[in-house]
Structure formats: C-alpha cells, structure tokens
C-alpha cells in the first residue's frame, strides 16, 4: 500500500482524538497568573539540569532507534517481511515498560527509576553497536532500549515538574521541546555516524555516548536528591 494511505489513516485518528477530547475531557477552571511567576523557576539550575538530561537521553535513544530498520536489514540481515513483527515487538516493549514502571513509583523515587531506565537504554544501545550482526541480539537490544525509554516516560514527566510551583505549565512545555528537539538532533547525529562509518549500526555510537551521559546526569541527581 502507499505510504500516503498510512499517513491519511493517522490524520483521521488525530481528528477522532480531537473530537473525543472535545466531547469527554472535563472543563477545568483556569487561574491566570503573571508570566513572571513561571519564569522565576527558570532562574534555578535544577530544572535546566533535568531538561538537559531529558534532551541528551532522548537524543541518544533516537540516534539509534531512528535507524532500527536499516540495522535489522543490512547488519542483522533479517528479511524485510519480518520488520512488521519486529516493530510490533518494539511497540509492545514500550507498552510493557510503561506498565512495569507505573506501580514502581509507589516504592521508588522518580529519579531512581529514571536512572535505572536510562542505564538500561545505554546498555541496550551499546549492545546494538557491537552485536547487531547477531539477529536475536539485534532484536533484544532494540526491545530493551524501547522498554527503557517508556519505562522512564512517566517518572521523567513527574521529575520535570517536581517542585515547579507556578511554573508547571512552562516546564511541561519545555519538556516536550526537549523530547521533540532531541528526536530530530539524535536522528541527525545517528545519520552522520552512518555516513562517516558506512554501516547502519554505527548510529548507536553517538546513541550510546549520549545515553550514558544522560544516565550520569540522573545518577548525580539521585546522589544529591535520593528521595525526589
């Protein structure tokens, strides 16, 4: 089928989502506050430190994950017909990561869970760099990275707005900018690594470096605020 059909289908789903939100999302009272209240929180180093960890970690994941298809095809030498199942497995891993993480927030701090998840991503991406020529390890690395990325999604969002006071809205928005900007930057860096080295699995080289840097950022945060 044409790729345009898939994009059209996604657009229809987006329209249905808008209609559903309009119909069933309850109205919330809006309390207007001066913009200066929100900007005050940005004078502290803490939110910027967290946002930098978010951006660097997301860039690391997408540097690798953006090229999962060519890695599976040209390095693991898996048939093109298997990619639907492989991508389904990646999506299932993301779903499971979210489900596993949620109940753990009752027992562990958000920053501790982010440290664990980000470290898993770093290990998985590093494994993809060296072992993607082995099909089952290529698939396992991709699944573990996908699991880790959504394992930290909930705790990460909570961590971004923790202690934000009146700045929750602007910090949440900056969090999304960090995620989406890192998606593009990570894909660019992964592509540059492939262009330089000539092999798809080398997208995991900047991916692993960035993922480990992000893990170190959050580990340092955990050491400073073990209960956050």
Provide a compact summary of the structure:
This protein is mostly helical.
Task: Present the secondary structure layout.
Blueprint: H1 3-24, H2 35-41, H3 45-65, H4 68-75, H5 83-104, H6 110-131, H7 135-151, H8 153-161, H9 168-197, H10 204-224
Helix pairs in contact: 3-6, 3-8, 3-9, 3-10, 4-7, 5-7, 6-7, 6-8, 6-10, 9-10
List keywords for this structure.
228 residues, mainly alpha
Description:
With 228 residues, this protein is mainly α. Helices cover 79% and strands 0% of the residues. It has 10 helices and no strands. It has helices at 3-24, 35-41, 45-65, 68-75, 83-104, 110-131, 135-151, 153-161, 168-197, 204-224. Helix 3 (45-65) packs parallel to helix 6. The longest helix is centred in the last third of the chain and has 30 residues, at 168-197. The chain is globular, with a radius of gyration of 19 Å. The chain starts with a helix and ends with a helix. The mean pLDDT is 89.
């Amino acid at each position: 089928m044409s790729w345009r059909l898939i994009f059209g289908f996604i657009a229809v789903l987006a329209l249905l989502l808008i209609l559903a939100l309009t119909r069933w999302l309850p109205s919330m009272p809006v309390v207007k506050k001066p913009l200066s209240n929100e900007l005050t929180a940005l004078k502290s180093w803490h939110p910027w430190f967290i946002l930098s960890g978010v951006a660097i970690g997301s860039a690391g994941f997408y540097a690798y994950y953006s090229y999962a298809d060519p890695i599976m095809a040209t390095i693991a030498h898996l048939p093109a017909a298997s990619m639907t199942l492989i991508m389904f497995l990646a999506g299932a891993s993301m779903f499971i990561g979210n489900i596993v993480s949620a109940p753990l927030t009752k027992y562990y701090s958000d920053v501790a869970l982010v440290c664990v998840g980000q470290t898993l991503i770093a290990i998985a991406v590093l494994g993809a760099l060296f072992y993607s020529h082995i099909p089952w390890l290529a698939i396992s690395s991709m699944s573990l990275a996908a699991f880790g990325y959504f394992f930290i999604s909930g705790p990460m969002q909570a961590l971004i707005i923790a202690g934000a006071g009146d700045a929750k809205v602007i910090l949440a928005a900056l969090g999304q900018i960090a995620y989406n900007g890192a998606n593009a930057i990570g894909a660019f860096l992964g592509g540059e690594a492939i262009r330089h080295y000539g092999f798809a699995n080398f997208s995991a080289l900047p991916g692993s470096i960035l993922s480990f840097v992000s893990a170190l950022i959050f580990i340092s945060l955990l050491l400073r605020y073990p209960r956050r």
